[in-house]
Every structure is written in C-alpha cells, then in structure tokens.
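Hey, I'm writing a tutorial for new members on how sequence and structure tokens pair up, and I'd like a real worked example in the thread rather than a made-up one. If someone can provide the structure for the chain below, I'll link this post from the tutorial.
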Amino acid sequence: MFSKKLLVGFAVLAMGIASAASDYKVELSQATQVGGTELKPGAYRVEIQGDKAVFKSGKTVAAQAPATVENGKQKYSETSVSTKASKIESISIGGSTVKIVFAP
C-alpha cells in the first residue's frame, strides 16, 4: 500500500515538472513574425504543445508555429530571441539548455 502511494506521488511530481518545463516567458522588443502571424512588442508566454509553439499574451493565443525543442550542452545565461528578416528563427531559454527552433 505504501509503495503504491509513493509511486502515485512520484508520478504527480513528474507530471508537474514536465508541464512547468514546457512553458517559457519571452519579451519581444520589436514587432516580429512567427508562423505567419505578426507579434507586437511585449511579454509573451510560449508553451510547447507537441510539435508546435503557442505564444500567449495573458490568456489570449497570439500565434502558433511549428517548432522543435533542442537541448544544448551548456546553459544559456539569458533568454534570447534570434530573428532573420523580422522572423523568429529560435529562442534560447536563459538558465536552461533549452532552445526552441522554428521551421523556416
């Protein structure tokens, strides 16, 4: 009985960690495009949902785009957004080894 409770406790903890790990905060300083949608400057929450990244402003979905998550070898010191021609190519998440890469 004790081992079942312990197993359930670990499962709940693992799910909590997994859900928290797929939600990141990003600040855009200028208008940029992702997935064919223009994002205005401001703060966004980026959630990874399967094979796409969802940008939210508050509770409103601002944009969605195909994306993959890569894990680097070293932690990024700060969150940075890489763009080309005002389109987001990738987001490196500060304090982690996570990099979100967007399809061209």
